[in-house]
Design a protein that fits this description.
binds iron/sulfur cluster; alpha+beta; 832 residues; six-stranded antiparallel sheet
Amino acid sequence: MFKVSWDRETGGIKLSSLVEKDTINISPRPVFYEELNLLGLNTLGWQYPECEEPLLWACNKEYYYRGDLVFEAKDANIYDKATIVFQPGKEKLKLKPVNMQKMLERTKEQMFLCESEAIEFIRDIYDTYSGANRMTEKHAANRMDFESLAQIQEKKTKQKMAIVKEDCESFDIMPLSEAEKQGKKVLKATKIDYFLASFSGGKDSQVVLDLCTRALPPDSFQVIYSDTGYELPSSLELYNEVQKHYHEQFPTLKFRTARNHEAVLNYWDKIGTPSDSHRWCCTIMKTAPLYRMLKVPGTNKQAKVLTIDGVRAEESVRRSAYEREGKGKHTNITNVHPIIGWNTVEVFLYLFRYNLPINLAYRIGKARVGCIVCPFSTAWDDMIVKNCYPRELKPFEDRIIQWSSKLGIKDVDAYIKSRKWKIKALGNKSKTDVNFQDSSANFIANIVNPVDSIYTWMQTLGDYTVINRGNKDMGELQYANAVYHFETHYYEKGRIQFVLHNCPTKLSLLLRRVMYKAAYCVRCEACEVDCPTGALTIVPDINIDKTKCIHCQKCLNSHDRGCIATDCIRMINDTDKKMSLKIQAYKTFGFRAEWLDEFLIDPEYFWNDNSLGTAQVDGFKAWLKEAEITDAKNVITDFGNLVKEVYLNDSDLAWELIWINLASNSFVVNWYVNNISVNQVFEKRTLIESICTSVPGAPSRTVENAVAALLQTFSYSPLGKQFMCAEQIGKNQYQRGEYSGISNIGLAYSIYRFAERIGTKSLRVSDFYDDDAEGSTSRVFGLNQTTFEQGLRSLNSEKNRVLIAELSMGLQHITLRDDLNSKNIVSIMFGL
Ligand code: SF4
Ligand code: SF4
């Protein structure tokens, strides 16, 4: 909420509502002696007391003592501790702790405002959602069931109704839109069964819990902790300490712990590692157990829940888009974020001010508290966990090593160090398979070794009957007021074919999900949470209560393919297959400027008539999709329309945007920008060999075609010679160069995309040059650091600054704007 600057006198920080001369654009975190010991500062000649108070502050990996940068910690990873690079003259420092008393005194007023506002917000939300019935309990004369009345009115009028609080403590019911127009205090008609403060062991949820205890009566909400099974030991310790702390003050405050019925390692063995694109652990180990625990008393029905959490906008790009109040991922869940606008410093000041216990993980250097293993953790986090919790990490590390080796990765250490295992899931291959046969009228599924009977989920579509005739079943399904006939054939070796005749498209999509769930279910319980009637139970066996199921299909639609496990298992089985198909789609054709020209003139008509041959059309379609110009149905996307506008005025910029997207989406371009360095000379043959070596299992013919297509792209578009991506310098020789002519818009777009990929709005220049900076702007355009910093300065000095770059006095900070993202930055900068 407030601006942060150094307070050199106390060694702490100051808060102010105005930007001052020494305002820091990044909110620093306090650094304690435990972190300095881990980094080895006590053996490098520094002296400091082993005290409770912080000693320094850190912005990313830059450490500040009383306002001065004193050292940087570089190149940490799971197997290597950080290298310490001291600022000149700071090699032998004697540190004094932060004067906490003075710092807290100087920030008292600002923190009072932060806290009061958040407490008022929590109270207001509670009043709004606790329902008119509860409100009116205080007023005997008004004791009417307003909630039921509002629901009856909603059904009758088919519009959203609100209960409003009038003057003199009386209540009324009116349409929500009208109430909002009149500025009335609205009491939501939704009845909330449980108010929760969700506790994660992190500093943000700890502050929110404390605020809740100050804002609400202790028996009006519960504290819920989700134990994922691979929590940091320090988080479990803190949870015990926190319970003790609040029970002493509020004996009636209820704490509950949610856990999945199975150990997380069992899920690793069944569905593989969580990865960047399949972060199943949060759903299966955290949110699903939590909400499954909260049923309406005496029923299996999901309770209506309002969760007060510690989400903050500063934490990530995705979170910065959150409203302060909104619907959760699962049905029946509302989330509110009272401290969404707080910065890191304010959160720590709150903990210091009220002398609340601090998770040891922060003291040893973690900026965020998560699990022992997390696909979103940084190389820095990996270093801390490996050094501080090796025993807890070992079973997970062992599996990553085993599965990487099985995949044929040659240098497993390097693979793990550079965190490549997080990009694509690793795991045991499954013997189950499902595929669907093309047929215009019938739905045909071929399934091998399904976990459950293929009828397990059929009830969600409608009532059905089955008669068995030897190796064949005959059946009927009632769906949407019609009856459909189906047959199931059972063959040897667990092979099954299911055929449903005259299947409409919508039913066919749902049937796919029914088949996937039956084939792959691992009883994770994630989809049970989405059942609104309590008809579905997963453990110990899947049961759909016919008397309660309303065929809403919410359990089929809770995830892609209807099942979170299916996605993960198929991803492991399909890794190599998918990659080869993706490459094959180009045939040997490159992305040609003349084709793009022709396409952008009239993107719709182009597919009816163009100058390309049939095979070339297929190749071009693949390139357009990977450039995000068209979607899966070859229809121009919003981004495609933007490229079209840009192309008419500035075709170079359009090609910059295209190259940035290809570097993210095209396997061969991604490999090229991350593996071929500037000035490197290479031949087609060496490129093919290198790809085949680094991607075990990739068919060599496929790779040859992809490389041919890439080299053609360089020859037939400005990307090769003009952008210096690869210039032909001999009969078979090419050389990569630096594209120093990148435009400000291209640079900004690339930076925002990279930041979104790594999930932050505050970066350092070195983040673009680190070993693991895959897909960074510097790699995509081969920019050296001087050119890149010039570009940043230019963006920083624009009238309407799209980022803040602090590059003087050894600083390396880049702060992106909260209101901008890769989706809007080009049109804003281009003036569209
Ligand atoms: S069907 Fe439901 S319970 Fe079974 S694995 Fe899939 S999401 Fe989990
Ligand atoms: S979500 Fe529940 S009610 Fe809806 S189809 Fe599935 S089992 Fe039936």
